[in-house]
Structure of Regulator of length of O-antigen component of lipopolysaccharide chains:
Amino acid sequence: MDEEVAKELEVDLKDNITLQTKTLQESLETQEVVAQEQKDLRIKQIEEALRYADEAKITQPQIQQTQDVTQDTMFLLGSDALKSMIQNEATRPLVFSPAYYQTKQTLLDIKNLKVTADTVHVYRYVMKPTLPVRRDSPKKPLPSCWLCCWADDRRRDCAGAQCAT
């Protein structure tokens, strides 16, 4: 009986590990696609600003404070700066969120789990009692005042009645 339960448990564990691995891999792939799309969008935005800078014949930066640059004013950086930004963005690796690395770590941990018959043990928590066959508790119920006496280790008045022993 225990061997059957252990085999069923082993199969369930392997199925759950396979399912969790697949789910985590799909999550990683989705996060990679999102990161690639963000990178492509950034490059397209810079290319668009370069096109505007070329049309306006702006080669040198026209603004002093670069931290104030928005998508609408990026062309003011000049075509030279925008070309180098495109080259820089194209060679940069993808930027991932901390959740990506946490998912990757979880996936590696799950892949390293090895479920074998040797590592699966079955324990029974709920069993029908076989012993004692006869009732081993007191035949008569204890008077309620005994509980008071037991708790205080001395006799005392229980609800106005004297404890009797």
